[in-house]
Amino acid sequence: MSGWIVALILVINLILQSTVFQYIDLLGVKPDSAIVIVIALSTFLGKERGAIIGAAAGMLQDILFGKPLGIITLSYMLTGYLVGQNSDKVFKENLVVPMVFTAGATLLKYFISIFFNYALGIQTPVLKYIQQYLFIELIYNCIISIVVYRILYLAYNKRLAWNRLKLNKKKRY
Q: Looking at residues 64-93, what average pLDDT do you find?
């Protein structure tokens, strides 16, 4: 998948997250489709590109949503790297894979956010976050991951098949 397509996916997601997804909340929790996209693309593209995609998606989130700059960037970058590093060890066609990675990434994001908020002296009601938001966001993101992962999986494999077809035609002549 080219860098331009990935950038387009991230920008479209940013627009959707800042507009449409703001109205789709469940008990005060909005879906985090950016982390799901980072996970899907890291699964297909590996650890280096996964880390870059995670850093780009996180930076867009940090800038747009006014968090202390770098916290979400760090968690998304780590997520992209770790998922990409383990992508060779999983069956990419299995829909349980993105759910497991999404659950782990959501936990990682929360713990990094809580740690840095504490380190920066930002008052964070940790128990409230864990009791009221973490579990709901975990389930919400896992459900969304199935849909997003499937769409990106089909798009990625269609592109691979198209490239193979073009290569086979060139070899014949």
A: 86
Boundaries of every domain in the chain: 3-21+28-166
**pLDDT at residue 65 tops 70:** yes
Judge whether 11 and 33 are in contact, CB under 8 Å: no
pTM of the model: 0.84
Q: What is the DSSP letter of 19?
A: T
Q: Report the distance separating Cα 137 and Cα 7, nearest Å.
A: 25
pLDDT at position 142 is 92
**Using only C-alpha atoms, what is the Rg of the chain?**
17
- CA 55 from centroid of its chain's CA atoms: 10
Architecture category of domain 3-21+28-166 in CATH: Orthogonal Bundle (1.10)
| Tokens found for residue 23 | 């109205």
